[in-house]
Amino acid sequence: MDVKETLFALSRAAGPVGFESAAAQKAKELLEPLADEVRIDRLGNVLAWVRSKKAGDKPVVLLDAHLDEVGIMVTGEKDGFYTFSTMGGIDPRILPACEFCLLTDPVTPAIVACLPPHVLKPGDSDKTQKTEDLFLDTGGVPVEVGTPGVFAREPVSMGSLVSGKAFDDRACFVAILRALEHIDREAMNVDLVVCGSAQEEAGGRGALTAAYGVMPDMAVIVDVTHGSTPDSPALGTYKPGSGVCVNKGPDCNRTLTQTLIEIAKAKDVPHQIEVSCGMSGTNATEFQNSREGICTAVLSIPLRYMHTPAEALNIEDIESCAKLIGLWVMTL
Question: If pLDDT is split at 50, 70 and 90, which confidence band does 124 have?
Fold first, then answer.
């Protein structure tokens, strides 16, 4: 698998919260050569079964990465422009002049209207506008209220990093795909379920139904975490290119977490320790709390500029994440 090209292909697929079908179909297509069975469930989760070649019942291990991305939805019309709301949490500071693709057929390009500095009143340039005060300009193309949209951004390579939209959390889904290539199904002692979950950005809804429906014995949740920059706080940010992050916190089973750390050390897998003093902000909460509880761990990939059209990460962190997952599965 070409990790970068796979990530770019998934990034291009539109999948805003609750409208993940295009991203789900692409994920299903990528999983089919690697799995025994792939289907999309009622909520929109992509579920794939990768079964051991050994006879008899096996423990079930689930690997999860969400497929939805942040986006917008058209809420109204005024003088040929459109009001909108964000889905999944977008900082209004980045919105003026942002380009979006509204998911009509064919796609409708749209720009968030903004005033040039020449006509601003004194002091206005220092103010952040609220999302409800912004408008979409479609160039006069009519769109229906309720139309969703995603950032218009083609992924690019930039030095040691790649940048694009929806790397949160498509990069982690790619890490799981890559991990399947590290696993020897002839020697594997568990059955795997891969979950490309829906609606994580709206509160883990896909994870909740997948956890309840599959009821795995163990689950590893793979998501992004905050990548460090010169202006970022030291606590809670992690260096891109320094390896996968293993999360320590209440969302994570202590024994499973420590096992992952020990494997990473023993096999020289580049890794960092991530700390979550409360909930991890991932699907781990939903898996951990499903039914009578599922033994859960969290692996993360450092990502800069989260929930923007310019999310950036290092491909080597995807590789280290995939390697750690593969090594762990083969120890079970």
Answer: low
Neighbours of 218 (CB within 10 A): 20
The ranges of the chain annotated as CATH 2.40.30.40 are: 71-151
Sign of torsion, CA 16 20 21 27?
positive
Match domain 3-69+155-331 to its CATH number in 3.40.630.10, 3.40.50.920, 3.30.70.330, 3.90.79.10: 3.40.630.10
Within 10 angstroms of residue 38's Cβ, the number of other Cβ atoms is 20
| pLDDT above 90: residue 317 | yes
> Tens digits of per-residue pLDDT, 199-228?
999 999 999 999 999 999 999 999 999 999
Containing H/E element for 107?
Answer: none
Burial 268-293 (b: 16+ CB within 10 A, else e): ebbbbebebeeebebbbbbbbebeee
**Residue 296 and residue 288 in contact, taking contact as beta carbons nearer than 8 Å:** yes
pLDDT, one tens digit per residue, over 62-96 is 999 999 999 999 999 999 999 999 999 899 999 99
303 strand-pairing partners: 226
Tens of pLDDT, residues 151-167: 999 999 999 999 999 99
The amino acid at 59: P
- Ramachandran category for residue 63: left, alpha or beta (phi over 0 → left; psi -120 to 50 → alpha): beta
CATH 3.40.630.10 domain range(s) in the chain: 3-69+155-331
Is 297 a residue whose pLDDT tops 70? yes
Q: When comparing pLDDT for 122 and 62, which is higher?
A: 62
DSSP string, 254-284: HHHHHHHHHHHHHTT--EEEEE-SS--SSTH
CB 74 within 8 Å of CB 145? yes
- The hierarchical CATH code for the domain 71-151 is 2.40.30.40
From residue 113, give the alpha-carbon distance in Å to each of 18, 146, 275, 284: 26, 19, 39, 38
